[in-house]
C-alpha cells in the first residue's frame, strides 16, 4: 500500500521514559519530516532529512533525535519524555524539498506524557 | 521572525461560497501551499501557488499576491464534507514549510 505509515497510533507514556515513534514510507521519497501539532499552533518542524544519511534540526528540536539509515524509515526518539511533549506527531515525506513538491503526511501518533 | 496569519474559525452555509485569507511574512518565498485537515486526520494537499494570480481546481481556487504577502483559498458550492481546518503554509528560503495555525471552517445546513 503506497503511502506513509506511523506507529504507534497512540501512546500514553510516563515522564522520563524513552520512546521511539516509527515512520515508514514506500514512495521512495528523498525528503522526510517530523512535525508536532498542538492546539492553536501551526505544525512545527522538529527534524527533517533531505536524503538518506543526512538529518537537520527544525524549529523545535530539543528533546528529540532522529536517524535516516535508509530511504524508507525515519524514526523519532524522545530520550527522556516530559509532559510538554504531549502532542500529535506527524511524519511527512516529499520527493524533494524544492519547487512544488507537496508533502504527504502519515496518519499521526497521539502521544500523552504523564 | 516568520509569521503566517489566518482566521481561527469561519462559518458558512451549505451551497454558499467562502474565502479563507492568509497573510505571511517569511524569510524568502518559494511557494505557498493550502492543505485540508479533517478532525483527527492528517493534512492533505489542496493547492500550490508560486506566481501571482488565481489557480482553479474544481470547486477550490487559490490566489496569491507576493507583493502583498497575501493568499486566499476560495471554496464554492460548499458541501458538509468541506467542514475541516484549512492550513496555509509558505516554503521559506531554506525550502522548509512555515505553517499557519489553520482556519476551522464550520458548514451549516
How would you describe the overall organization of this protein?
- The complex is a heterodimer of chains A (114) and B (109).
- Chain A has strands at 4-7, 10-13, 19-25, 31-37, 44-49, 56-57, 64-66, 76-78, 87-94, 104-105, 109-113.
- Chain A has 114 residues and is mainly β.
- In chain A, strands 2, 4, 5, 6, 9, 10 and 11 form a 7-stranded mixed β-sheet that branches. Chain A has a 4-stranded antiparallel β-sheet with strand order 1-3-8-7, with no helix packed on it.
- In chain A, strand 5 (44-49) and strand 6 (56-57) form a beta hairpin.
- Chain A is globular.
- Chain B is mainly β.
- Chain B is built from no helices and 11 strands.
- Chain B has strands at 3-5, 9-13, 18-25, 32-37, 44-49, 53-57, 60-65, 70-75, 84-91, 97-99, 103-108.
- Chain B is globular, with a radius of gyration of 13 Å.
- The mean pLDDT of chain B is 96.
SSE blueprint and pairings:
The complex is a heterodimer of chains A (114) and B (109).
Chain A: E1 4-7, E2 10-13, E3 19-25, E4 31-37, E5 44-49, E6 56-57, E7 64-66, E8 76-78, E9 87-94, E10 104-105, E11 109-113
Parallel strand pairs in A: 2-11
Antiparallel strand pairs in A: 1-3, 3-8, 4-5, 4-9, 5-6, 7-8, 9-10, 9-11
Chain B: E1 3-5, E2 9-13, E3 18-25, E4 32-37, E5 44-49, E6 53-57, E7 60-65, E8 70-75, E9 84-91, E10 97-99, E11 103-108
Parallel strand pairs in B: 2-11
Antiparallel strand pairs in B: 1-3, 3-8, 4-5, 4-9, 6-7, 7-8, 9-10, 9-11
At a glance:
The complex is a heterodimer of chains A (114) and B (109). By secondary structure, chain A is an all-beta fold. Chain A has strands spanning 4-7, 10-13, 19-25, 31-37, 44-49, 56-57, 64-66, 76-78, 87-94, 104-105, 109-113.
Percent of residues in β-strands of chain B: over 45%
Major sheet size, sense and barrel closure of chain A: 7 strands, mixed
Helix content of chain A: under 10%
Mean pLDDT of chain A: 95
Rounded radius of gyration of chain A (Å) = 13 Å
Order of helices and strands of chain B: EEEEEEEEEEE
Class derived from helix and strand content of chain A: mainly beta
In sequence order, what are the helices and strands of chain A, one letter per element? Answer: EEEEEEEEEEE
What oligomeric assembly is this protein in? Answer: heterodimer
Segments of chain B where pLDDT lies below 50 for 5+ residues?
none
How far is it from the N-terminal to the C-terminal residue of chain B, by CA? 40 Å
Termini separation of chain A:
34 Å
Strand content of chain A: 35-45%
Determine the structural class of chain B based on helices, strands and strand pairing: mainly beta
Structure annotation, total helices of chain A: 0
- Please count the beta strands of chain A (DSSP E, at least 2 residues each): 11
Spatial shape of chain A = globular
Nearest-integer average pLDDT of chain B: 96
What level of helicity do the residues of chain B show?
under 10%
